[in-house]
Amino acid sequence: MLAEPERKLAVNELLNEFPLLHQSTRIKGWQEWFALSDVSSPLVNKGPRFDLLSMLIAAVRSNLGVALLPRFAIQHDLDSGDMVIPCDVPMRTGNRFIMTWREEKSESEHLQIFRNWLLSKSVVSAA
């Protein structure tokens, strides 16, 4: 994601023109993303690393570079035009979230409402 709405780039331009910002929990993210476009370079592993997704988003908003971000976290920025997707190379990570709760709370109406809402927002894949 890029906080320069007027810019659309080719994949190799992205690598050469902007610092790549990394999420420390997905350190191979850029390498995997560039591989989707058959681009390989030692530069894909360089750049600042951020422990928190919120810090990574703040860095992009401050024009410190580009980052691989989940759409749900920045959809408002995309809708408002404050951020753009500079290269249309979507990537599915295969990451999953698991909702857990204490057994004695299983019948909680609030829990069931939240669970149903969460499921309605989720994409379930047959993997």
The biggest beta sheet is recorded as: 3 strands, parallel
**Strand arrangement, largest sheet?**
2-1-3
Give the fraction of residues assigned to helices: 25-40%
CATH hierarchy class name of one domain: Alpha Beta
Radius of gyration using CA atoms only: 17 Å
**CATH H level, superfamily name of one domain:** Periplasmic binding protein-like II
CATH architecture of one domain: 3-Layer(aba) Sandwich
Q: How many angstroms separate the termini?
A: 27 Å
What is the overall shape? elongated
The number of helical segments is 5
Q: What's the mean pLDDT score?
A: 82
Q: What fraction of the residues are assigned to beta strands by DSSP? A: 5-15%
What is the CATH topology classification name of one domain?
D-Maltodextrin-Binding Protein, domain 2
Number of separate strands: 3
Order of helices and strands: HEHEHEHH
Give the helix/strand class. Answer: mainly alpha
Defining traits:
127 residues; mainly alpha; D-Maltodextrin-Binding Protein, domain 2; 3-stranded parallel sheet; 5 helices; 3 strands; Glycine cleavage system transcriptional activator; LysR_subst-bd; sequence-specific DNA binding; DNA-binding transcription factor activity
Description:
This protein is mainly α and 127 residues long. The chain has a domain at 11-80: Periplasmic binding protein-like II (D-Maltodextrin-Binding Protein, domain 2, 3-Layer(aba) Sandwich). The chain is 36% helix and 6% strand. It contains five helices and three strands; from the N terminus they run αβαβαβαα. It has helices at residues 11-17, 29-35, 53-61, 71-80, 109-121, and strands at 20-23, 49-50, 66-67. The chain has a three-stranded parallel β-sheet with strand order 2-1-3. α2 links the parallel β1 and β2 (49-50). The radius of gyration is 17 Å and the shape is elongated. This is Glycine cleavage system transcriptional activator. Belongs to the LysR transcriptional regulatory family.
